[in-house]
Amino acid sequence: MGIRCKTILAAVMVTLSLLGGGGTLIAGESFITAPLPLRNMYPPMMRFLDPVPDSALRDYSDWDVGLHQHLSSIYQADQWPASQLLADMELSVTDLMVRKALTEDMDLSVQLSLLRPFNGVLDQLVKDVHKILGVPSSGRQFRANNAFGYYFRPGSPGGWQGKNRWEMGNAVVSLRKQLLEGDGWAVAGLASVKASTASSSRGFGSGKPDVGAGAVASFAGERWFMHVEAWAIYTFARDVAATALPGISYHPYSRGSATLGWKYSDQLALIVQGQGGSSPYSSGIRQLDKPPLIYSFGLQGETDGGTGWTLAFTENGLSQHTTQDFTLSLALHWQFPG
After folding, report:
1. Could you give the domains of the chain?
2. Region of 297 on the Ramachandran plot (φ > 0 left; ψ -120 to 50 alpha; else beta)
3. How many other CB atoms sit within 10 Å of the CB of residue 167?
4. pTM for the full model?
5. DSSP labels for 139-169?
6. Tens digits of per-residue pLDDT, 78-135?
7. HSE of 312 in the Cβ direction (CA atoms, 13 Å)?
8. CB–CB of 299/308 below 8 Å?
9. Nearest 5°: CA angle at 214, between 209 and 217?
């Protein structure tokens, strides 16, 4: 692991240690009715801002800390066997989310990410499942099992060449402000800024910031709850001029999510969630241009000791070109009293 990654991990441990000094960990009452803390894990889309769904009903506590661990299997190529664009890997993503209340109805959050693309161990399993379900192999037969590859027009302007190594992800700072509130429902305004702290030469950052504004409407009854969220996002990434190959242009794009959940008990909820939007790319390559759409199914609960947890599975609908194949996610959440 490189010095930079060791520094990030040390900062995570120090942050948790400092926050833990104020008192006993407790879980917020509304945690299990929040959306699943998931996002698109397809690396070309991770170069841009992709907000994690939020809730307008989430408790505005003094501190809220989340540690999200995701493992994705990814295979996308624009043509076979010679590809201009290739993403063939398994990807581990660790997100640290720290949220601090600013007022009784507004808070600020920071997301820091650590990435580890690697060869993987699941390729044969994925091929077997696709065969059983009758799903096309989509070119996987042209690559050896558990081989790493990530590039786009390597050596040309705007291209990238990924490596099998630890990576820093993009940092995101977000603001949430409750606008309306009623009996079991609320509406909140959202704003986010993505700093391109991830490597653009290795394909995990765009080299420029993105800014977004959105809103989320939430409802929670005795058993059922739901959230609907929408975003408009602007990227400062500059167009790539055409050379021997077609160029790329970047443009404003949208993101949105819909969450439906059912409380099995006061400590456990079952949740289904859809996330999608438009693509920030115009390239003539469907693995970049097609609107992304992912579906997730998960359980969300809390322990008697007060730790909130999420266990989820995310699928790309078996026909998407701008998402990961699937993701397994585990998230832990804690709240700290003032």
Report:
1. 3-333 (2.40.160.40)
2. beta
3. 23
4. 0.86
5. TGGGS-TT--EEEESTTSTT-EE--SS-EE-
6. 887 778 899 999 999 999 999 999 998 999 999 999 999 999 777 667 766 666 666 6
7. 33
8. no
9. 150
